[in-house]
Write the structure tokens for this entry.
Amino acid sequence: MDEWKKANVVPIFKKGRKTKPGNYRPVSLTCVCCKVCESIIRDDLAANLERNRLITPSQHGFMRSRSCTTNLLEFFKKITNSATREGPWT
């Protein structure tokens, strides 16, 4: 079980000059068993939240097939629809 508590933190290069430490992001490498258990728990928790309607549809970052980008696009669509219906030119 101690193996599950340990992680190898590896710097992954992002962009820019390789000599600057700020151009790297840390990534934790954990054991495969830990990753599988995390995945099972995450999927079960997400299904429970959706099933019991404890998470709203506007929380795109927490729902399958949705992201912060889809949330932003939906927001702009609502603003655009609102402006075209209620704008001074109608």
